[in-house]
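=== RUN LOG ===
request id: a7f3
mode: sequence -> structure
chains: 1
length: 428
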Amino acid sequence: MKSRYVVAITAAVALLSACGVFRGDDEGGQSAQTTGVTSEPCPSAVDSAKGCIYLGSISDLTAGPFAALAVPITEAQKAFWARVNKAGGIGGTYEVDVTRYVRDNKYNPEVHRQVYNEIKDQVLGLAQTLGSPTTAAIIGDLKASSVVSAPASWTSAWEFEDVVIETGANYCVEAMNSVDYAMEAYQPKSVMAVHLAGDYGADAAAGAKIAAEAHGLEFTGVETPPGATEQGRAITEITRVKPDLVILTTGPADAATIVGQSAAAGFKGRFIGTGPTWNPALLQSPAAEALKALYEQSAPGKPWNADTPGHQAMREALPGVTPNDGYTSGWAWAYPMKAALEKMVAGGDVSRAGLLAAVKSLKTVDYEGMLPPEAGNYADDPNTATFRQTLINKLDETAPTGVTEVRDFFTGPTAESYTFDGPCFAKL
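=== RESULT ===
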């Protein structure tokens, strides 16, 4: 930042800047009230009399394995905040911009850290930080700088980070509930977790292991690299061990390869894939028949066509798009940030510290029916606050996103009784 002030007050300005009270001009030449907040209107303001809160977004927009989900996530969040601005903004004082500081992480932790450093001094918080291992690469700075962030991921690590406002059950809970559901539906005797490395895959694998052990089932864990052409070992292990149930935690293309080629090799067990394993385009893939026969999807929230006010508002705000539950997740993830911003402005401390304090006081969030209000508990201790309900979907070619509910929000006995005293993946 270049100071335009006379030498006599340079030292004072530097001190205030260090404290985050005054920062001079931001990237757009606007006068900043605090980091990421200006008295000038947002670039596409509905009401030019309102100030602007800038939120950054770091997502997998081009080359990574989750781009097919990440692009809709990002577009849904733009639509969400446009709706907020049209309805009067935050506290009648500010509108929110999530378009100026959007960056692509290519699902690479080093790239994620690099682009975060490019924008962190321009934003109040992050409307989106996509990926568990990628967000883990910046969590130290998020905490040190009190940067409240909405993750596009569900690792159980977020239960223990005040600056992270997660929405929906974590991967560990999701996998626990999947195994408990399978016990009712299929009575498996053995469970295998096929998973990517890191906080995403290992968290679900840990949940599957905890549930398998709780039911006295044989458990096998198989770590696999990302990439549809890299699944040979996973397929070999599935067809060799022949587990009754496979919990998949990969990207969609990886999941299609694993299910399709395992079925082609004669495997007849069941697959339940965590939420990000599914993309409706897989119904047009060579693996479609195998997926329809053997695969179900676990999910932290209801799909695109659910009948809730939040889903209805999302669909109205995104006319003409091809339905994708990336939109659904992106929209739902924005509610806690909205609630925290509103509480921050009402409390009079418009700053990173004020936003974090607002987050830590939230016990419920109004998700407009997309999730129960208690999913937005950030005030209680992690074990009390952890949301433990997930859903199970089956493939349905007539549904907008290729899935319909088999089991509505439920908590299985494993998740119900489990004590969250640290991230699940650390125990795998």
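=== NOTES ===
The chain is about 40% helix and 15% strand.
The radius of gyration is 22 Å.
=== END ===
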